[in-house]
Amino acid sequence: MVVKERVRPGGRSARIQASVHAAVDALLEQMDRAELTIPVIAERAGVTPSTIYRRWGNLGELLSDVAVKRLRPAAEPADTGTAKSDLLAWAEQYAEEMSSEVGRAMIRDVMASPTENNAERCCGYTYEQLQAISDRAEARGEAGLDVEAVLDLVVAPIMYRILFLAPPDVAHCRALVERALPGQGQKRGG
Amino acid sequence: MVVKERVRPGGRSARIQASVHAAVDALLEQMDRAELTIPVIAERAGVTPSTIYRRWGNLGELLSDVAVKRLRPAAEPADTGTAKSDLLAWAEQYAEEMSSEVGRAMIRDVMASPTENNAERCCGYTYEQLQAISDRAEARGEAGLDVEAVLDLVVAPIMYRILFLAPPDVAHCRALVERALPGQGQKRGG
Fold first, then answer.
1. With the C-alpha atoms ordered B79, B85, B89, B91, is the resulting torsion angle positive or negative?
2. Interface test with A, best of B58, B126, B165, B172 (most A CBs within 10 A)
3. A65 located within any domain
4. Closest C-alpha to B126, from B175, B72, B174
5. What's the confidence (pLDDT) of residue A35?
6. B108 and chain A: CB distance < 8 Å anywhere?
């Protein structure tokens, strides 16, 4: 899976994007999402409203784009010694972040995008994180992850429960990881 | 799990709800969702705008409420002879309905509701359908379903893939059901 980015780094286009994203971030600290308008964002970013309309089309698409950027993980998954413990630590953090008020609002913004391209970018970030855990496992001499199976067995239930039911607790995350990697991953020497 | 309904059947309140829902349904046949406004809906439904504001608060909440009603399954799951084949038939239909353009738009409307109550009602409908399959299995003398596990193993991956990736095909639905009910449910006499 390839994570498509809308704009290449560097150049005028990237500077405009960074400036508009920063303006949205700053304004969301000060005002309610419902009060945001494209002219207000444009003024803050130092660009014309038509620049924003040309690139993003509408406010929903812009907010969705900003939300995806925020959903991008800041770092590699923590190295805790085994694939299973890495996956467990990752799943607990994912459940916690996505079920926070900010996380839910971001997911809603991403979902509200009519193109669905942003939703795929989100899933792409998740895929990359799981692939990193898998690559590290193989480098240790462990079996790698079946990333597609982990999406179905761990990621999907966490997201479904956050969106439609209630956030899963740590015990539930643990049970999901145990189901995905049964019996695997005692720490070496443990 | 209890599916909470906003209004009891019968009475003036239920008639207003039915009339407003019917107005939204009819208007959505004629115009784009983006053009809908509460005054337009009120006129069509023969109520005052303030009646709608009082009950639903805003347009997003009303559209979400209508979407949940549409997501309510029309019938019991088909009886195909075994719990496993019932679950497979149900999962295929669920994936097909939810990944249609109408289905995705409905999910987005439900998700856009700030209260999240509607999302829980949706999941409640799903839970009821799975429970019906389980009850029927027990009546046949088969093992019932672990409905919570089926939510995690079958429903969640279907919904996650529709929302964030790509709709699962029939083979994928089959693999999810096989994982949830391994080896179970050859048709009797088959």
1. positive
2. B165
3. no
4. B72
5. 83
6. yes
B141 and B168 fall within a common domain: yes
Q: Which of B104, B111, B151 lies closest to A163 in CB terms? A: B111
Cβ(B151)–Cβ(A164) below 8 Å? no
- Tally Cβ neighbours within 10 Å of residue A20: 24
CB pairs under 8 A between A and B: 68
Q: Which domain holds residue A161?
A: 74-180
For B148-179, b where at least 16 C-beta lie within 10 A, e where not — what string?
eebbbbbbbbbbbbbbbbebbeeebbeebbbe
Check CB contact under 8 Å for A155 and B160.
Answer: yes
Contacts of A161 in chain B (CB under 8 A): 151, 156
Tokens of A120: 């795929």
Q: Which residues of B, range 159-178, sit inside 8 Å of A by Cβ?
A: 159-161, 163-165, 176
Dig out the tokens for A117 from the structure.
């391209």
Query: Is residue A189 very low, low, confident or very high in pLDDT (cuts 50, 70, 90)?
Result: very low
Residue B154, min C-alpha distance to chain A (Å): 8
pLDDT for B34? 77
Q: What is the ipTM of this complex?
A: 0.76
Q: Residues A41-70: pLDDT tens digits? A: 999 999 999 999 999 888 888 888 888 787
Among A139, A128, A149, residue whose Cα is nearest residue A81: A139
Across residues B61-85, what is the average pLDDT? 85
Q: Which of B116, B122, B160 sits opposite A156 (nearest CB)?
A: B160
Residue numbers of A between 37 and 76 with CB closer than 8 Å to B: none
Find, among A90, A41, A43, the residue nearest to A66 by Cα.
Answer: A41
Q: Distance (Å, rounded) from C-alpha A130 to C-alpha A121?
A: 14
For residue B19, the domain's CATH number is 1.10.10.60
Average pLDDT of span A173-178: 97
The alpha carbon dihedral of B151, B152, B157, B162 has a sign of positive
A132, part of any domain: yes
Query: Rounded mean pLDDT of chain B?
Result: 85
In a domain, B2, yes or no: no
Residue A134: pLDDT over 80: yes
